[in-house]
User: What shape does this take?
Amino acid sequence: MTYLADKKISIVIPSHNEEKNISYLIEQLRETLSPTGYAYELIFVDDGSRDNTLNELKINAELHSNVFYVELSRNFGKDYALKAGIAMAQGDAVITMDADLQHPPQLILKMLNLWENGYDIVYTYREGENPHGKGYQKVTSKLFYKGLNMLSDIKMENGTADFRLIDEKVVKQLKLIDEYEIFFRGIIKWAGYKQVGIPYVPSKRHTGEASYSFAKLVKLAVGSIVAFSARPLYIVSLIGLLVSSLAILYIPYVLVSYFLGYAVSGWASIIATIAFFGGLQLLVMSVIGVYVGKIFMQSKHRPHYIIRSSNVVIVDNDFIRI
Assistant: This one.
């Protein structure tokens, strides 16, 4: 494997309550990358941690000249933390990964090899089920990717991770995207370029517990589908058309029953019909409401994140290391 020492690699790591993982991860990355000859920088984004993650980052930034940190003013979410880190990256390639060491640092060597062989994007996807995941996480993960592939315009492997390498020319395009509720796993697929996926087996978390709750997973699924397709609108429109057609067919039955003197069903059938159509209308309105809500939030043009502190200085929209 041949490396070019004149190239620089930026590694972006969103961190939320990872105080016990920071130093160990930096050590693992140094052991992996130092022999390659690449210049590299580690950019940690503290996404509103409530523990001592920020202090750990500051200590390591003092110890290592290529470690940089960005403290967001609150928890904005993983994808916005990734966006903040990518905005500051200055490498010829950017690698994004989690701070919990479930993404094995040694796999970076394979990513770099594929990149040097001409691939613009090297992404990873989980091989089989996550051996360290909880029961509901395994089920919801499968449902998430099946639903996303069925209802959106992008296709993703089951277990696609935020562990990826992105070439500089792709990063430049990603920095231009100003989208509300950005979903990087989908954006990477949508972007095109020359891509290759590699399977991996997640390692066990070094310390701590996963912070993604079931409610957050549901919100992520709905937001991701809406962000990449209007197909749910077409589906509810089709349902509405079918139900309307059935309702029209019901009219002759009512007229024939009336003129022939047959007793028309009583309150039970009426209540059931009202409940059915009422529920259908609420379903259609809720789907439309999700899309309208996204348009409303996008129209506000609020910043995607707010930086509270950093050891990177912003001068004329350029990031200067100090």
